[in-house]
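Quick one:
INPUT:
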């Protein structure tokens, strides 16, 4: 007697799953019964239309219960396998011709005398109904059918529990799956059927808190994969959405409580440094910046660790807000650190800060991975414990002598930051306040999902006097007209970004490369000094290129998306993006944010693309031409790509989402939050036996350092 099938059973241990299939699924990341069953169908096909042959209409999709009266090879301009079939109970009744082209194995599966169920689209030829390449399954004569199948495919198919009356592929609402690991959707469907039939009806994953015990797993999975109605499928999806949502929100609620319970530092009680800085600026803070500084300050001043997200479009002045917060911490005798995702950005922040703080005696140091601290003269070793400001990259976390006495950690562009790294900084024993900054606007509906345990400040306003960016879409054919325009801008002293998707030419695609673009543009704009920036350069080379561009020693910077995040050269007023359709919408918006930062009247973003109206890739370019509002663009990106993709690429720390419906479903999120709060109110430390799975869940999450807090 083989062991009872469980959700955790490894596919290799399931009888009837051939090793070849198991290997393919494994390679695609599907290892257990649960992994297979929690892949939701991409869509369903309703194959319940089961008319009589005599009623069939041209073009109609139908399932027919048929008896095969004759089957064999046919030869016309091509060879195909044909079955002449009709109702079993009417040998003299009307017939339909089923034809399979390029599917020679059908000959081994099908023989005269079998009963089958066939689904396909009906075409009449010379008055006779036919189906081309219908989906079919043998509904009796199972032994024979299975042996034939094995012989044909070396791929045994279990029909063990599909009785003669129960079809898998026809005469029902049939699940259609995304192909995975080269496994055909039909084969996947068979596997799901087989696993569902073999699981005991009351089976459920061990060690998991069941959020909806009244709707048993096996029943819900049956509704998910082989629903009796669309409604049943919806109900099942909702159940698994809620499961995902609950797990996520429970951890969020737990962390929120932990954070509240922890003692934090009280800083930001005085603000002399802050005022000194603000008084020295040639401009005043925007209302949004002032509001954010106040919100941050209020957090810092209470004895509870701050956990705040500062969200604002590129150029909205987040860095200055961060500096204000850092000065508040410093004045309270604490060291404050700013961590950027790349070295270029760290160095840029450092230089900015140095400029802004030039008239003060604030100690500032830079620490990145492959360069010694630049300001070491100003910062002798012994000063490390003295309060100061530090700017660095991730490397800051891994240094033996990482900053001590941390009062505030600012994390720039958090999407590029590994969640584990954030946790690492925070675990050091101290409980610094944490401010996370992101220039990737999140659709409003996602803020709660993604940042449920963070407080959020929003910079929804750009500093006044900002030049608008005019965005246009052109085909590469327009280049001869673009060149003189560029010359004019360059003569006026402006600088230009040219962006390409690849570093160098590739055999695999004809997308533009930065190296190729540099050559072409040197030819088009002879004598113009140009720099080349991409990820394959060493840190020193990048630094040198950026310095040249900053100092306007090169007027054109040809780059890949290295230039995407945070780079600030206000004098640059034109950006040309080659093969713009190969970038994501939000990414294009980020790129465009590099220009329009100076005082000059207008900046120009020229999107080059061959994408025609209606083609994929075109719509996002049109959106970009229409609006410059990052939040609006985020909503559109969300609409175009769906929550799964937006979150996936945003590296949000959300992990794999299988049932993304909940992500933008406030009702579901609120319900999950309520459930989580109810449980935590009744059992704050999760000590009750029935809550053991939840304790394991939150421990596992914090072990992985899932998020700030
Ligand atoms: P972000 O990080 O949000 O993209 P930055 O902080 O880099 O934006 O700010 C972009 C530029 O705007 C910087 O040169 C900064 O000095 C300037 N800036 C910031 N706040 C203001 C303001 N209130 N008024 C005018 N310029 C500002
Ligand atoms: Mg920034």
């Amino acid at each position: 007697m083989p062991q009872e099938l469980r959700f955790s059973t490894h596919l290799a241990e399931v009888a009837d799953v051939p090793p070849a299939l198991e290997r393919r699924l494994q390679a695609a990341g599907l290892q257990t019964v649960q992994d297979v069953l929690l892949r939701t169908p991409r869509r369903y096909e309703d194959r319940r239309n089961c008319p009589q042959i005599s009623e069939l209409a041209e073009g109609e999709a139908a399932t027919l219960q048929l008896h095969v009266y004759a089957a064999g090879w046919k030869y016309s301009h091509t060879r195909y396998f044909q079955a002449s079939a009709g109702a079993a109970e009417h040998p003299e009744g009307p017939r339909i011709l089923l034809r399979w082209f390029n599917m020679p194995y059908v000959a081994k599966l099908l023989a005269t005398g079998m009963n089958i169920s066939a689904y396909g689209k009906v075409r009449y030829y010379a008055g006779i109904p036919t189906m081309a390449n219908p989906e079919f399954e043998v509904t009796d004569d199972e032994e024979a059918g299975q042996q034939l199948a094995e012989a044909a495919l070396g791929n045994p198919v279990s029909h063990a529990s599909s009785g003669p009356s129960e079809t898998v592929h026809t005469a029902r609402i049939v699940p259609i799956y995304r192909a995975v690991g080269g496994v055909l959707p039909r084969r996947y469907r068979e596997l799901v059927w087989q696993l569902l039939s073999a699981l005991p009806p009351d089976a459920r994953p061990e060690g998991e808190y069941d959020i909806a015990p009244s709707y048993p797993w096996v029943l819900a999975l049956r509704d998910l994969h082989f629903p009796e109605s669309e409604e049943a499928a919806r109900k099942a999806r909702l159940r698994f959405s809620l499961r995902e949502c609950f797990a996520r929100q429970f951890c969020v609620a737990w962390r929120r409580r932990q954070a509240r319970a922890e003692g934090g530092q009280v800083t930001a009680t005085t603000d002399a440094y802050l005022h000194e800085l603000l008084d020295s600026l040639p401009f005043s803070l925007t209302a949004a910046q002032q509001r954010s500084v106040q919100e941050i300050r209020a957090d810092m001043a209470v004895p509870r660790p701050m956990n705040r997200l500062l969200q604002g479009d590129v150029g909205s002045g987040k860095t200055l807000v961060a500096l204000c917060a850092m000065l508040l911490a410093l004045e309270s005798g604490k060291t404050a650190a700013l961590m950027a995702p790349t070295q270029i950005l760290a160095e840029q922040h450092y230089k900015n800060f140095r400029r802004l703080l030039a008239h003060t005696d604030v100690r500032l140091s830079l620490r990145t991975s492959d360069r010694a601290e630049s300001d070491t003269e100003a910062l002798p070793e012994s000063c490390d414990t003295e309060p100061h400001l530090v700017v660095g990259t991730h490397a800051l976390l891994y240094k033996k002598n990482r900053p001590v006495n941390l009062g505030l950690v600012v994390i720039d562009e958090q999407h590029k930051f590994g969640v584990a790294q954030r946790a690492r900084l925070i675990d050091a024993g101290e409980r610094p306040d944490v401010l996370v900054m992101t220039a990737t606007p999140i659709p409003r509906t996602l803020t709660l999902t993604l940042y449920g345990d963070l407080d959020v400040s929003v910079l929804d306003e750009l500093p006044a006097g900002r030049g608008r960016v005019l965005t246009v879409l052109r085909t590469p054919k327009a280049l001869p007209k673009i060149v003189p325009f560029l010359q004019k801008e360059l003569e006026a002293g402006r600088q230009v970004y040219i962006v390409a998707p690849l570093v160098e030419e590739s055999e695999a695609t004809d997308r533009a490369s930065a190296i190729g673009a540099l050559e072409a543009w040197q030819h088009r704009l002879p004598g113009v000094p140009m720099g080349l920036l991409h990820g394959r350069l060493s840190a020193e080379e990048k630094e040198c290129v950026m310095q040249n561009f900053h100092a306007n020693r090169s007027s054109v910077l040809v780059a890949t998306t290295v230039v995407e995040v945070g780079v600030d050269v206000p004098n640059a007023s034109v950006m040309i993006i080659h093969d713009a359709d190969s970038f994501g919408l939000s990414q294009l918006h980020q790129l465009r944010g590099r220009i329009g930062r100076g005082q000059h009247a207008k900046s120009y973003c020229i999107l080059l693309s061959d994408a025609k109206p209606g083609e994929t890739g075109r719509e996002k370019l049109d959106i970009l031409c229409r609006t410059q509002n990052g939040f609006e663009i985020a909503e559109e990106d969300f609409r175009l790509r769906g929550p799964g993709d937006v979150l996936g690429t945003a590296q949000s720390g959300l992990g794999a989402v299988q049932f993304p419906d909940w992500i933008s479903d406030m009702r579901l999120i609120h319900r999950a939050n309520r459930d989580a709060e109810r449980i935590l109110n009744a059992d704050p430390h999760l000590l009750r036996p029935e809550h053991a799975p939840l304790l394991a869940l939150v421990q596992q999450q914090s072990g992985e350092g899932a998020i700030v807090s």
